[in-house]
Amino acid sequence: MKKLYIILLVLLAFVSFAQFSVKTELKYLELINKQKNTELIENNLFNAELVSDSLIKTETNNYENSEYFFELSKSYFLAKKYELSLFSLLRQRCLFPNESVEQKSEILFNEVIYRCNLSDSISKILLNQNSSKNNDNVFSKKLELLLNLSIKLQKKKLVPPIFKIGLEYRSKVNNVPIWYQHWEFLSIINVKEKIKSVILEKTYNATPIYEQISEKNLQNKIYRKAIKHYLKTNAFVQAKTIISDYEKNKLSIFLSTDLLIKKSRIFLKF
Q1: What does the buried/exposed string (b/e) look like for 236-270 if buried means 16 or more CB atoms within 10 Å of the residue's CB?
Q2: From CA 28, how far away is CA 72, in angstroms rounded?
Q3: What is the pLDDT of residues 81-113, one digit of tens each?
Q4: Helix, strand, coil percent content, the chain, rounded in steps of 5
Q5: Would the pTM count as exceeding 0.90?
Q6: Which of 2, 5, 234, 263 is most solvent-facing, going by the fewest CB within 10 Å?
Q7: How do residues 130-163 score in pLDDT, each as one tens digit?
Protein backbone atom coordinates (compact mmCIF):
# COMPACT_ATOMS: atom_id res chain seq x y z
CA MET A 1 0.00 0.00 0.00
CA LYS A 2 2.87 2.35 0.83
CA LYS A 3 4.54 1.60 -2.52
CA LEU A 4 1.29 2.31 -4.38
CA TYR A 5 0.97 5.62 -2.53
CA ILE A 6 4.51 6.62 -3.56
CA ILE A 7 3.82 5.69 -7.19
CA LEU A 8 0.66 7.81 -7.20
CA LEU A 9 2.57 10.77 -5.77
CA VAL A 10 5.25 10.44 -8.46
CA LEU A 11 2.62 10.27 -11.21
CA LEU A 12 0.81 13.29 -9.80
CA ALA A 13 4.06 15.24 -9.63
CA PHE A 14 4.87 14.28 -13.22
CA VAL A 15 1.46 15.41 -14.49
CA SER A 16 1.71 18.68 -12.55
CA PHE A 17 5.20 19.31 -13.93
CA ALA A 18 4.03 18.63 -17.51
CA GLN A 19 1.16 21.08 -17.14
CA PHE A 20 3.47 23.65 -15.55
CA SER A 21 6.01 23.31 -18.36
CA VAL A 22 3.40 23.87 -21.07
CA LYS A 23 2.04 26.95 -19.29
CA THR A 24 5.53 28.31 -18.73
CA GLU A 25 6.58 27.69 -22.33
CA LEU A 26 3.38 29.26 -23.65
CA LYS A 27 3.91 32.40 -21.57
CA TYR A 28 7.52 32.55 -22.75
CA LEU A 29 6.44 32.21 -26.38
CA GLU A 30 3.91 34.99 -25.91
CA LEU A 31 6.55 37.21 -24.31
CA ILE A 32 9.30 36.83 -26.92
CA ASN A 33 6.77 37.05 -29.76
CA LYS A 34 5.40 40.30 -28.33
CA GLN A 35 8.93 41.66 -28.01
CA LYS A 36 9.81 40.37 -31.51
CA ASN A 37 13.17 39.31 -30.14
CA THR A 38 14.35 37.14 -33.05
CA GLU A 39 17.52 36.00 -31.25
CA LEU A 40 15.53 34.63 -28.31
CA ILE A 41 12.96 33.18 -30.71
CA GLU A 42 15.62 31.32 -32.71
CA ASN A 43 17.27 29.99 -29.54
CA ASN A 44 13.93 28.77 -28.19
CA LEU A 45 12.66 26.88 -31.25
CA PHE A 46 14.38 23.57 -30.41
CA ASN A 47 12.94 23.51 -26.90
CA ALA A 48 9.55 24.65 -28.22
CA GLU A 49 9.45 21.65 -30.56
CA LEU A 50 10.20 19.29 -27.68
CA VAL A 51 7.16 20.70 -25.89
CA SER A 52 5.05 20.35 -29.05
CA ASP A 53 6.09 16.68 -29.35
CA SER A 54 4.94 16.05 -25.78
CA LEU A 55 1.60 17.75 -26.45
CA ILE A 56 1.00 15.57 -29.49
CA LYS A 57 1.71 12.45 -27.46
CA THR A 58 -0.83 13.44 -24.81
CA GLU A 59 -3.56 13.97 -27.50
CA THR A 60 -5.28 16.41 -25.10
CA ASN A 61 -7.33 18.97 -26.97
CA ASN A 62 -7.78 22.08 -24.86
CA TYR A 63 -7.48 25.82 -25.38
CA GLU A 64 -3.99 26.02 -23.89
CA ASN A 65 -2.52 23.39 -26.22
CA SER A 66 -4.23 24.91 -29.23
CA GLU A 67 -2.98 28.37 -28.30
CA TYR A 68 0.55 26.97 -27.91
CA PHE A 69 0.77 25.94 -31.57
CA PHE A 70 -0.61 29.32 -32.64
CA GLU A 71 2.12 31.11 -30.66
CA LEU A 72 4.74 28.70 -32.03
CA SER A 73 3.57 29.60 -35.53
CA LYS A 74 4.08 33.28 -34.68
CA SER A 75 7.64 32.49 -33.58
CA TYR A 76 8.42 30.75 -36.85
CA PHE A 77 6.86 33.64 -38.76
CA LEU A 78 8.99 36.23 -36.94
CA ALA A 79 12.05 34.04 -37.60
CA LYS A 80 11.07 34.09 -41.32
CA LYS A 81 10.59 30.31 -41.36
CA TYR A 82 7.28 30.56 -43.20
CA GLU A 83 6.86 26.89 -44.16
CA LEU A 84 7.27 25.84 -40.52
CA SER A 85 4.94 28.64 -39.44
CA LEU A 86 2.25 27.22 -41.71
CA PHE A 87 2.97 23.68 -40.54
CA SER A 88 2.50 24.77 -36.93
CA LEU A 89 -0.86 26.34 -37.79
CA LEU A 90 -1.88 23.08 -39.46
CA ARG A 91 -0.86 21.17 -36.34
CA GLN A 92 -3.12 23.45 -34.33
CA ARG A 93 -6.09 23.20 -36.68
CA CYS A 94 -5.82 19.47 -37.40
CA LEU A 95 -4.74 18.11 -34.00
CA PHE A 96 -6.02 20.67 -31.50
CA PRO A 97 -8.92 22.47 -33.19
CA ASN A 98 -10.41 25.43 -31.41
CA GLU A 99 -12.70 27.97 -33.07
CA SER A 100 -11.52 30.85 -30.92
CA VAL A 101 -7.85 30.22 -31.74
CA GLU A 102 -8.67 29.72 -35.42
CA GLN A 103 -10.44 33.08 -35.58
CA LYS A 104 -7.38 34.77 -34.04
CA SER A 105 -5.01 32.96 -36.38
CA GLU A 106 -6.86 33.57 -39.66
CA ILE A 107 -4.91 36.71 -40.59
CA LEU A 108 -1.59 34.99 -39.87
CA PHE A 109 -2.78 31.90 -41.76
CA ASN A 110 -3.49 33.89 -44.92
CA GLU A 111 -0.28 35.89 -44.65
CA VAL A 112 1.84 32.76 -44.25
CA ILE A 113 0.15 31.12 -47.25
CA TYR A 114 1.12 34.12 -49.39
CA ARG A 115 4.68 34.11 -48.02
CA CYS A 116 4.93 30.42 -48.97
CA ASN A 117 3.82 31.29 -52.52
CA LEU A 118 0.87 28.92 -52.43
CA SER A 119 -2.05 29.21 -54.81
CA ASP A 120 -5.56 30.27 -53.82
CA SER A 121 -6.79 26.74 -54.57
CA ILE A 122 -4.36 25.29 -52.00
CA SER A 123 -5.38 28.01 -49.57
CA LYS A 124 -9.05 27.01 -49.87
CA ILE A 125 -8.19 23.34 -49.35
CA LEU A 126 -6.24 24.14 -46.18
CA LEU A 127 -8.90 26.41 -44.74
CA ASN A 128 -11.87 24.19 -45.60
CA GLN A 129 -10.52 20.76 -44.67
CA ASN A 130 -9.07 21.45 -41.25
CA SER A 131 -11.67 23.55 -39.44
CA SER A 132 -12.75 22.46 -35.99
CA LYS A 133 -16.30 21.81 -37.23
CA ASN A 134 -15.14 19.14 -39.69
CA ASN A 135 -12.42 17.54 -37.61
CA ASP A 136 -12.55 13.87 -36.58
CA ASN A 137 -12.37 13.03 -32.86
CA VAL A 138 -10.09 10.01 -33.44
CA PHE A 139 -6.53 11.26 -33.03
CA SER A 140 -5.06 8.93 -35.66
CA LYS A 141 -7.51 10.44 -38.17
CA LYS A 142 -6.36 13.91 -37.16
CA LEU A 143 -2.75 12.87 -37.76
CA GLU A 144 -3.70 11.44 -41.15
CA LEU A 145 -5.39 14.71 -42.11
CA LEU A 146 -2.29 16.64 -41.04
CA LEU A 147 -0.07 14.38 -43.15
CA ASN A 148 -2.35 14.71 -46.16
CA LEU A 149 -2.53 18.50 -46.03
CA SER A 150 1.17 18.96 -45.27
CA ILE A 151 2.22 16.80 -48.21
CA LYS A 152 -0.01 18.86 -50.52
CA LEU A 153 2.11 21.92 -49.70
CA GLN A 154 5.06 20.42 -51.67
CA LYS A 155 7.69 22.06 -49.46
CA LYS A 156 11.07 20.37 -49.03
CA LYS A 157 11.66 22.01 -45.63
CA LEU A 158 8.59 20.21 -44.30
CA VAL A 159 9.87 16.71 -45.13
CA PRO A 160 11.57 16.14 -41.70
CA PRO A 161 8.57 17.30 -39.58
CA ILE A 162 6.19 15.32 -41.81
CA PHE A 163 8.30 12.21 -41.24
CA LYS A 164 8.13 12.85 -37.47
CA ILE A 165 4.34 13.11 -37.58
CA GLY A 166 4.32 10.00 -39.76
CA LEU A 167 6.15 8.02 -37.08
CA GLU A 168 3.55 9.09 -34.51
CA TYR A 169 0.80 8.12 -36.95
CA ARG A 170 2.38 4.71 -37.64
CA SER A 171 2.45 3.98 -33.89
CA LYS A 172 -1.36 4.33 -33.74
CA VAL A 173 -2.59 2.47 -36.84
CA ASN A 174 -2.20 -1.01 -38.26
CA ASN A 175 -2.69 -0.15 -41.93
CA VAL A 176 -0.82 2.86 -43.30
CA PRO A 177 -2.43 4.34 -46.45
CA ILE A 178 -0.69 3.54 -49.72
CA TRP A 179 -0.31 7.22 -50.62
CA TYR A 180 1.72 7.86 -47.47
CA GLN A 181 3.89 4.77 -47.97
CA HIS A 182 4.68 6.01 -51.49
CA TRP A 183 5.41 9.52 -50.22
CA GLU A 184 7.86 8.10 -47.67
CA PHE A 185 9.66 6.08 -50.34
CA LEU A 186 9.91 9.04 -52.73
CA SER A 187 11.21 11.25 -49.91
CA ILE A 188 13.79 8.68 -48.84
CA ILE A 189 15.22 8.45 -52.38
CA ASN A 190 15.22 12.28 -52.58
CA VAL A 191 12.68 12.94 -55.33
CA LYS A 192 11.74 16.61 -55.85
CA GLU A 193 8.44 17.78 -54.37
CA LYS A 194 6.71 18.62 -57.67
CA ILE A 195 7.64 15.24 -59.12
CA LYS A 196 6.35 13.53 -55.97
CA SER A 197 3.02 15.26 -56.47
CA VAL A 198 2.75 14.08 -60.08
CA ILE A 199 3.62 10.50 -59.13
CA LEU A 200 1.28 10.34 -56.13
CA GLU A 201 -1.63 11.26 -58.41
CA LYS A 202 -0.85 8.25 -60.59
CA THR A 203 -0.01 5.53 -58.06
CA TYR A 204 -2.84 3.81 -56.24
CA ASN A 205 -1.79 0.31 -55.17
CA ALA A 206 0.94 -1.34 -53.13
CA THR A 207 3.11 -2.47 -56.05
CA PRO A 208 6.45 -0.61 -56.45
CA ILE A 209 6.04 2.90 -57.79
CA TYR A 210 8.23 2.38 -60.87
CA GLU A 211 5.99 -0.48 -61.98
CA GLN A 212 2.94 1.81 -61.96
CA ILE A 213 4.43 4.70 -63.95
CA SER A 214 3.70 4.48 -67.67
CA GLU A 215 5.79 7.52 -68.69
CA LYS A 216 9.23 6.04 -69.42
CA ASN A 217 11.39 9.08 -68.65
CA LEU A 218 9.75 9.49 -65.27
CA GLN A 219 9.94 5.77 -64.61
CA ASN A 220 13.67 5.72 -65.42
CA LYS A 221 14.24 8.72 -63.14
CA ILE A 222 12.66 6.90 -60.19
CA TYR A 223 14.63 3.74 -60.93
CA ARG A 224 17.88 5.73 -60.98
CA LYS A 225 17.02 7.64 -57.79
CA ALA A 226 16.19 4.40 -55.97
CA ILE A 227 19.35 2.61 -57.14
CA LYS A 228 21.50 5.61 -56.19
CA HIS A 229 19.95 5.72 -52.71
CA TYR A 230 20.47 2.02 -52.00
CA LEU A 231 24.04 2.09 -53.29
CA LYS A 232 24.78 5.14 -51.14
CA THR A 233 23.41 3.39 -48.04
CA ASN A 234 25.26 0.14 -48.86
CA ALA A 235 21.97 -1.73 -49.34
CA PHE A 236 23.49 -3.64 -52.24
CA VAL A 237 21.04 -6.55 -52.27
CA GLN A 238 18.09 -4.19 -52.71
CA ALA A 239 20.00 -2.16 -55.31
CA LYS A 240 20.71 -5.33 -57.25
CA THR A 241 17.02 -6.32 -57.17
CA ILE A 242 15.92 -2.95 -58.57
CA ILE A 243 18.67 -3.00 -61.20
CA SER A 244 17.38 -6.38 -62.44
CA ASP A 245 13.99 -4.77 -63.10
CA TYR A 246 15.42 -1.54 -64.48
CA GLU A 247 17.67 -3.12 -67.09
CA LYS A 248 14.65 -4.80 -68.71
CA ASN A 249 13.75 -1.35 -70.08
CA LYS A 250 15.05 -0.10 -73.41
CA LEU A 251 17.75 2.27 -72.19
CA SER A 252 19.64 4.97 -74.08
CA ILE A 253 23.42 4.81 -74.38
CA PHE A 254 23.73 7.36 -71.57
CA LEU A 255 21.43 5.41 -69.23
CA SER A 256 23.08 2.09 -70.13
CA THR A 257 26.52 3.55 -69.32
CA ASP A 258 25.21 5.02 -66.07
CA LEU A 259 23.74 1.64 -65.10
CA LEU A 260 26.99 -0.14 -65.92
CA ILE A 261 28.85 2.18 -63.53
CA LYS A 262 26.30 1.48 -60.80
CA LYS A 263 26.53 -2.29 -61.37
CA SER A 264 30.33 -2.11 -61.10
CA ARG A 265 29.97 -0.75 -57.55
CA ILE A 266 27.98 -3.83 -56.58
CA PHE A 267 30.48 -6.12 -58.31
CA LEU A 268 33.34 -4.60 -56.31
CA LYS A 269 31.50 -5.32 -53.06
CA PHE A 270 30.89 -9.02 -53.77
Answers
A1: beebbebbeebeeeebeeebeebbeebbeebeeee
A2: 10
A3: 999 999 999 999 999 999 899 999 999 999 999
A4: 75, 0, 25
A5: no
A6: 2
A7: 655 555 688 999 999 999 999 999 999 999 999 9
